[in-house]
Amino acid sequence: MKFRPIEFFRTFSALGVVWIHSWILFQNPSLSLGKIDFFKLISFVGNGVDFFFVISGFLMYLALQKKEFSLINYAYFVKKRFLRIAPLYYISILVYFLVFNFLQNQDISFKDVVIDALFLNNHFKVNIAYTFWSLAVEWLFYLIIPFLFIFRSRKTQFYTFLLICLVSIVRLYQVEASSKLFLTPDMPLPLFIEFGWGILIGMIITNDAWKLKFQVKQSWLNLLIGFGILYFGRVMRLTELVENAGSFAIFLKVLSGPVMTFGFAYIMWMLIGSIGKFNGFVEHRFFQFMGRLSFGIYIWHVLILSIIPWTHLNAHLPTPIAMILTFVMVSALTTLLSWLTYELLEKRYFNSIHSNSNQRINS
Predict the structure, then answer these.
(1) Residues 169, 80, 293, 343, Cα dihedral to 10°
(2) How far apart are CA 224 and CA 254, in angstroms?
(3) Nearest-angstrom CA–CA distance, 51 and 260
C-alpha cells in the first residue's frame, strides 16, 4: 500500500521542528497582531517530533501486521530499521562531533559518541545534537512494538494496545509529577500513546469492517474537528493556563500531548483513509519531495542553526522578521544538504532489497 499523504505530514512535521528551534534561537520573540501573538497562535507547528511519532506508529503497524511474529521476522524488522536510520545518523554523529569539538570548542568525548551511537542517549542524558533524543526513543519502540504482534487475534492486539496506552498515561503522569526534563525521558513508555494513535489508525485502515464502520471522510468539517482537537491539546499546555489551573495543572500537562497528537492523527486518518478534495494538495510533488528529505531535515537543521550566527540579523532587522528570515534560510540550506545526503546515503536503502518498493517507512 502507498499512502502519498504521509509525505505531506512528514514535511509539516520536519519544517515545524525547524520553525520551533528558530523561534527558540531568538529567545521566543512575539509577533503581535492586535492583541494576538501570532507566533504563539501557531506554536502547535513546533510539535513536529510528536507528529513524527504518530506517523511512525502508523507505518510500523503496516510493516508488521501481515507477518506472523517470530524471532526471524523480528530480527529482520529490526535489521531493516537499523539500515534505514543508522547510516545517516552515524554520519551526522561524526559531523556534529567534529564541528562542535573543533569549531565551537565544545567538550564532546568519544564516550558521548558511543552512547549516542548505541541509542542510549536518554538513559545517560547525552545528546550530541539536541534532536537526537527522539531517535533513541524511536529505536526503543522499534525493539518493543513488534511484540504486540505475538497475538494474531486483532481483538487481542487491540485490548493489549489499550492496556499499554493506559500504562503510558500513568507513566506520563509520573514523569510530569516528578518535574523531570520531559524532553529526555528515562524510558520511552510515556510517549507510547503518541505512537499509539498511529497504530490505532493502522488497525482501522487495514481492517475492512473497521474501515467502513469508522471511516472519516474528507470534508472541511472533519478537517476543522481534527484541527480543533489538535489546537485544544496545544492550548492545554500554555504556561498561562497551567499556572492558573491550580491542582488541575498536572492533568492539563499530562493530557496535552495525547489530545494534541490525537487531533493530528484524526486529520491523518481522514486524508489516508478516504479520497476527496484535499488529495490534490497534500499529494503535490513538492510535499512528495520534501517528505523524502524529512529525516535529513530533522537531522541537519541543528547543524545549520549552530554554525551560522543567525542572531546577528537582529542588528539590521526587527527580531520577529529576523527569526522568520532565519527559518526560511535554514529550511532552504537544510533541504539542500538533506537532498545531498539522501542521494548519497538514504536512496541506497530504498533501492536495496531491504526496502519494500510498495511501502516506505521513514523514521
Answers:
(1) 170
(2) 24
(3) 9
Confidence of residue 184 (pLDDT cuts 50, 70, 90): very low
- Quick one: cell of 219? 470534508
> Hey, how many other C-beta atoms are within 10 angstroms of the C-beta on 131?
18
What pairs with residue 37 in β-bridges? 32
Amino acid at residue number 308: I
Q: Does the structure show a pLDDT above 60 at 359? A: no
- 178/173 Cα distance (integer angstroms): 8
Type of residue found at 60: M
Kindly indicate the confidence band of residue 353, based on its pLDDT and cuts at 50, 70 and 90: low
Beta-strand runs (E) in the chain:
32-33, 36-37
pLDDT reading at 84 higher than 80: yes
Three cell numbers written together for 307: 554554525
| 3 state SS of 98 | helix
Radius of gyration of the chain measured on its C-alpha atoms: 20
